[in-house]
Design goal:
Elements lengths: L12 E5 L2 E3 L2 E5 L5 H4 L2 E9 L13 E3 L2 E9 L1 E6 L4 E5 L3 E5 L4 E7 L4 E9 L2 H4 L4 E5 L6 E2 L2 E5 L1 E2 L2 E2 L8 E7 L4 E4 L7 E12 L3 E2 L4 E4 L6 E16 L7 E2 L4 E2 L2 H20 L33 E8 L2 H4 L6 H16 L3 E6 L7 E6 L2 E6 L9 E9 L2 H15 L2 E7 L17 E8 L2 H4 L6 H16 L3 E6 L7 E6 L2 E6 L9 E9 L2 H15 L3 E7 L3
Antiparallel strand pairs: 1-21, 2-3, 3-4, 4-11, 5-10, 6-9, 6-11, 7-8, 7-10, 9-12, 13-14, 14-17, 15-16, 17-22, 18-22, 19-20, 19-21, 19-22, 23-24, 25-35, 25-36, 26-35, 27-28, 27-30, 29-31, 29-32, 30-31, 33-34, 33-36
Helix pairs in contact: 3-8, 5-9, 6-8
Length: 549
């Protein structure tokens, strides 16, 4: 891996880009595009400021991450940073930030005065780290190992080894003088390789200009470079990340389940930041550098969006579902394609399916008493007002958390049942000790249907319960639904689709599953729900808006 006389080129460039500029950063790689080619490297920004714009306010720059590690390399100038872990400071030129977000963390940052240059990289973490506790390491310039023209950010080069405990990969900053030749031999198994030039230009022998990223063909072979003028660039190499990319608004995970788990932690931290007055509004437009936010996916999840509303699309139980028959493989394939499309288009948030009503319970809390009725059920007669997805050790534990919920809200009715897992569909082998997940849906009351604002005292108690359940690792997701006058139902019969606007008096059919999506209007979500209903082959789908309190 050390410098040597240039050899006959053996690796071709298969893709090159100058990215897209937004604010003070140029987006060279996103998880939804080139990240698929060079994973575990899933995101790369080249940021640059000449000091003419006022620094972005630290207060307004808070945003969350999970499932990744962010790696910020400051080439010139300085950068301020702060994390919800309590870490804060300034990164001078030559320093490195490694923030392993793991199961979720929030941070903020801004450029220092004068000229600032650098790169921010996201690294997708493997399953054993993507939901692990977060950890960060800030390396000062004098502690970054150097060998020849190379500064070692991650991994090793020659005898120099980075002090950062990263998964196996190599990330280098290389500075070459005009006409200098350098050859890079990747570590064993490193078939992924790319470079991004910050200044100057390279020949490999084809030219890679300043501001350009080049991806090399998958191969273990060496790459030869020669500098045109004084040149500085970053290089990454690694074994190909063998996992799918499950994308969130701020996160990259290996599965939807891992993403949902981290989302609950991110929301918990966000509520704490709000309560402490730290989180007031997220960065949406204008100059930004630390994580430039021109794409909706990278906006802070907890802030209401200007162009999107959140909806729950519920499909109802059919006779085939009640019989417990496995869905047709074509249905599974169709749902999978629709979800992947929704993730790519940044509209799909989450979704679950429920087992037949014979596995469910109906729980009524009235006058301080609790009545539990086991399924099966033929109808519900009432409307859903909200839900909670719980991961527990037993059905009894799930019911005990329903008891805690009722203690906060008073008289209430709930339907609760286990969700369908991948092994129930034969998609993966069943684990030895599989997790138990239950979905609880509580019924609409007059106050909720009339959209009366929530009582502040009740909201405070509910917030405390949500935080307790999240800390205990129980709460996977939760949400409330707006009154039915904002909703719609789509019925599928005889090859025709009929849309009926709310309000509704009741819903006779029980919920079989749901999807949460973010779209700009009710019309847009109805269009999506029509596709959803046809794919899952049901008779009725209900659309309900989820309010932002």
């Amino acid at each position: 891996m050390l410098a040597q006389q240039i050899q006959q080129p053996v690796r071709d460039i298969i893709y090159r880009t100058r990215g897209s500029m937004g604010g003070l950063a140029t987006r060279l790689v996103s998880p939804s595009d080139l990240g698929e080619l060079i994973k575990p490297f899933v995101f790369l920004d080249l940021f640059a400021s000449d000091g003419q714009d006022a620094p972005l306010s630290m207060e307004h720059g808070w945003h969350p991450h999970s499932g990744i590690a962010t790696v910020t390399v400051v080439l010139e100038g300085s950068v301020r940073y702060a994390e919800t872990t309590g870490k804060t400071g300034v990164l001078p030129a030559g320093s490195v930030e490694w923030m392993r977000a793991g199961n979720g963390v929030w941070h903020t940052g801004t450029q220092g005065p004068g000229r600032v240059r650098g790169f921010q990289l996201w690294v997708a973490l493997p399953p054993e780290l993507e939901n692990a506790p977060n950890a960060s390491h800030y390396v000062m310039p004098e502690d970054v190992p150097v060998e020849g023209p190379v500064r070692v950010i991650l991994g090793s080069y020659g005898k120099a080894k980075s002090p950062i405990a990263s998964p196996p990969m190599t990330y280098l900053v290389v500075s070459l003088k005009a006409g200098e030749r350098w050859s890079y031999q990747p570590s064993k198994g490193h078939t992924v390789a790319w470079v991004a030039v910050q200044e100057g230009a390279l020949r490999t022998p084809s030219r890679i200009a300043s501001g350009e990223l080049a991806i090399f063909e998958p191969s273990p072979q060496s790459i030869d470079f020669v500098a045109e003028g004084n040149t500085r660039f970053v290089l990454g190499s690694a074994v190909k990340h063998p996992y799918d990319l499950a994308l969130g608004n701020y996160s990259v995970h290996t599965s939807a389940e891992a993403l949902r788990q981290a989302d609950a932690e991110i929301r918990r931290i966000g509520r704490t930041l709000r309560a402490e007055g730290i989180l007031r509004r997220a960065c949406r437009s204008g100059p930004g550098w630390f994580v430039a936010l021109p794409e909706a996916r990278y906006e802070a999840e907890l802030e209401p969006r200007r162009t999107a509303m959140r909806f729950m699309v519920m499909h109802k139980v059919t006779d085939e579902m009640e019989k417990g028959l496995p869905p047709d493989p074509a249905v599974i394939e169709g749902v999978g394609k629709l979800i992947q499309e929704g993730l790519k288009d940044k509209i799909f948030v989450s979704g679950e399916g429920l087992k037949p009503t014979s596995h469910r319970v109906h729980i009524v809390y009235k006058g301080g008493k609790r009545t539990i009725t086991d399924g099966p059920f033929t109808e519900a007669k009432e409307l859903v007002a909200g839900f909670a997805l719980m991961r527990v050790r037993s059905k009894e534990e799930a019911i005990s958390w329903c008891d805690r919920f009722a203690a906060v809200v008073g008289d209430v009715e709930l339907f609760m049942g286990p969700v369908v897992e991948p092994w129930d569909l034969g998609m993966v082998p069943k684990p030895k000790n599989p997790p138990l997940r239950f979905l609880s849906m509580h019924k609409m009351d007059e106050r909720a249907e009339n959209e009366a604002p929530p009582d502040p005292g009740l909201m405070a108690k509910m917030g405390a319960l949500i935080e307790e359940m999240t800390k205990a690792g129980v709460l996977q997701a939760t949400g409330g639904l707006a009154g039915t006058k904002l909703g719609a139902r789509i019925r599928f019969e005889g090859g025709k689709r009929t849309v009926i606007d709310g309000p509704f008096a009741e819903s006779k059919e029980l919920v079989a599953g749901y999807a949460i999506v973010e779209l700009p209007s009710k019309a847009a979500v109805i269009e999506w729900a029509m596709r959803f209903g046809e794919v899952v082959q049901v008779n009725e789908v209900e659309v309900r808006q989820m309010p932002e309190w």
